[in-house]
Amino acid sequence: MSDADDSTRRLAGDVRLREVWAWSMYDFANSGYTTVVITAVFNAYFVAAVAGSAPWATFAWTAALSASYLAVLLTAPLVGAWADAHAAKKPLLLLSTIGCVAFTALLYFASPGALALAIILIILSNFFFATGENLVAAFLPELATSKAMGRVSGWGWAFGYIGGIVSLGVSLAYLMTRPQGTPATETVPVVMLITAAIFAVAAVPTFLLLKERAVPQPAEADPWARVLHTLREARRFQDLRRFLVTILFYQAGIQAVIALAAIYAQEAMKFTTQQTIILILVVNLTAAAGAFAFGHLQDRIGHIRAMRLAITGWIVMIVLAYLAEGATLFWVAANLAGLCMGAAQAAGRAIVGYLAPPARLAEFFGLWGLAVKAASIFGPITYGAVTWIFPGNHRLGILAVGVYFVIGILLLAGIDVERGRRAAQARP
Predict the structure, then answer these.
(1) Minimal CB count within 10 Å: which of 41, 219, 265, 272?
(2) For the chain, what is the mean pLDDT?
């Protein structure tokens, strides 16, 4: 049997590869937002131009992100429960996509001095992005069998990093057409329009080809009652509960790196904007390879061993970045971060899909999103607070968030995914 036949056989029910491709294209589409806005371009622009490099600028950036993630944290379980009750993941995904695209385009007006407008637009665009990320993840167990969740999740993350490369590459191509010395205040707003347009166009296959296979589930009059019921029964899903806590910590470190990569490169390593963009482009290639390859490895060596390997890589990366004085070692650290980012993101999503009760996928992926977004609150803001308390000490900031990876790897001990899988299959 060929690899293609084997992959198709491991897809669920009547799922075909083109539908998995359409699902993966959403990761392709929305990754332009995180890559360009959160990681590579707008974050550094916000600190240097919008906030005028004020001592509190990095903290203001992390505070804006934290506010958006707090909003997601409060709404994700409710959105997931409602989506399960009405079998409405796809309509909600469309609404979240429109919201993120629109508010990303409006970042065109976030000029120097327009601090309040920039903060509001970041909060709103990131809120809709994160909500959509939760919803599209909940399709995974409908597309792949339990034996292939790792590789299918890896395909999605790999497509996502390629999408980030495309958005960033088009943005870089635009920047290179501008006369040398053109101020960022003229170029970055246009880059926001480019990013929004690519997101909108690349997401079209998802809405044309991806099917909503869920059926409406009986729901309480108050959707919050369904969420509270899940939380009360969390002790019956002890392995999923422990893994969600693990996510809370290791994702705190990952989200800090995502939100502050360009800022660290420019402030600690003295990279130029062009050097930073090239670095992020290469790192996205590494991350795509990591997500694709690690998904297959995860299905072979087991979920927990794979996750332990990925988090260990993150710890090594933090040490290298802290010690780096020149560009060479920092490039090594950055590409190790890319490799481990793709691996950890793909592995984490697959484990949640493996441990979640089949009839309540959107709801439990809402709890996954809750854990990730909670991590996104205190991870970046830890870095921001350290650089504010110790002005300009970005090395201490990166070392501080490295502690979260250490806690995460310690929490992996005691998780039995097969026990957790049995518990999930036994309950509605």
Answers:
(1) 272
(2) 86
**CB within 8 A of 300, min separation 6: which ones?**
none
- Distance, first Cα to last Cα, the chain: 35
Taking phi over 0 as left and psi of -120 to 50 as alpha, with beta for the rest, 217 belongs to: beta
Q: How many domains does the chain have?
A: 1
CA distance 41 to 273: 8
Provide the 8-state DSSP code for 235.
Answer: G
DSSP letter, residue 1: -
In a domain, 6, yes or no: no
**Maximum pairwise Cα distance, the chain:** 64
Let me know if residue 113 belongs to a domain: yes
- Alpha-carbon gap, residue 217 to 428, rounded angstroms: 10
Structure tokens, 147: 């034996």
pLDDT grade for 321, boundaries at 50, 70 and 90:
very high
Q: Which domain holds residue 177?
A: 17-210+223-426
What CATH number did the domain enclosing 308 receive?
1.20.1250.20
Residue 74 lies in a domain: yes
Query: Could you tell me which residues are beta bridge partners of residue 11?
Result: 144
Q: Collapsing DSSP states into helix, strand and coil, what is residue 11?
A: strand
Whether 168 and 281 have beta carbons less than 8 Å apart is answered as yes
Residue 68 belongs to some domain of the structure: yes
Q: How far apart are CA 261 and CA 259, in angstroms?
A: 6
